[in-house]
Amino acid sequence: MSTSRDSTSCAEDDTSRAELAAVAAVGADRTVLPRALTSPNTLAVVAVTLAGIGAFFNLYATQPILPLLEQLFHTTKAGAGRTVSAATLGVAISAPFAGALAERVGRRRIIVLSIFLLSLPTVLAATAGSLSQLVFWRFLQGVAMPGVFAVTMGYISEEWPRTRVAQVMSIYVAGTVLGGFLGRMFTGVAATHQVLPYVQPSWRVGFVIIGLCDVIFGVLLWRWLPPDSPIASDGHEPGKLLVHLRNPQLLATYAVGFNVLFSLVGTFTYITFYLADPPFNLSPAALSLIFTVYLVGLVVTPLGGVLIARVGSRAALIAAVSASACGILLTLVPHLAAVMVGLVLCSSGVFVCQSASASYIHRQAHSGGRAAASGLYVMFYYIGGSFAGIVPGLLWHLGGWKSCVALILLVQLITVSIAGSIWQGKKA
Known about the structure:
Elements: H1 2-11, H2 13-23, H3 41-59, H4 66-72, H5 77-105, H6 107-125, H7 131-144, H8 146-159, H9 162-192, H10 203-224, H11 237-245, H12 248-276, H13 284-289, H14 297-311, H15 313-330, H16 336-364, H17 370-388, H18 391-399, H19 401-422
Helix pairs in contact: 2-9, 2-14, 2-16, 3-6, 3-8, 3-9, 3-10, 4-5, 5-6, 5-7, 5-8, 5-17, 5-18, 6-7, 6-8, 6-10, 8-9, 8-17, 9-10, 9-14, 12-16, 12-17, 12-19, 14-15, 14-16, 15-16, 15-19, 18-19
């Protein structure tokens, strides 16, 4: 087995440096190939990709229909934004526990169980008769999600050898990008177009479709995801969490994650209100199409790994945040084409930031504790998203979209300051 691994490493020598920089050197102490690398390797990669797609189907599903929800439930923009922040808050609360639990009972078991559980509040969200009910079901969706995507990150890091981790992680992240786009598309199109025979257009139809997809993906994950290998663990998950929280490098990365998602959610949540008003006047279906800019991430994410390999995580993050800042400024131009270009820059910058953070956090966390470290990162990351679902809306009355842009630029400046001053190391 070790001979097979050596030959694989030689064959991939030209790309290993880029792969290592994208996600960090993990599993270097393995003496055998993990199960996920054996004959069903292709199905294993497909399975983790489906995990990313399935979780992110759900997370931002209400973004393109926020102006519609504002009207239907007679609420404020910040009130409608709670349907986004409720989901991200649920993610933030459960993420560290999902990572710790996965290290105790097995990652595969948690991933499969979580995606089945996720289907329940997703379908029930379609029955919501009030905004409070919808927010409640969205919160429960968020609680179930980290068991899928946060644990999958740890699964990939532990189950593939270090020369393959970045490649598989990039495919997984591309899956999350595709899932985020499709989830928004389903709800936006279903709100204004008949997508099922004999069923009138409704945002509720989108949630039903997404819930059914969750069930299908759960079955496929159960069939295709290989069992995870035993990992070294001291059995004291709370202690591991405290160790991670005492690491200033990890704390800085958690703060970066908070700010990165704050910028992304703040942008793509409140841009819908901006584009629903004159001079754009976009419908929910048209608003869902603006999220096609996320598909650029399918190309940007692998390229981001190459950039990180060449210049390091810190320099790549600073460049990515700078591009994102230029993009958010472009959205102020009152032409849809300029806004779309700006959103491409914003989203692409965030994807590179995410890869840079993943690279840095896995380099700082030790094997056996990476799932817990990833869980904490996801917690802070989505706490940032929770704040972004509400705070920009509270500032809307000060200057509309311009107020949101100013706030997001401030957060991005703080992000660059943190990474530039605290991240350390030759590959930082």
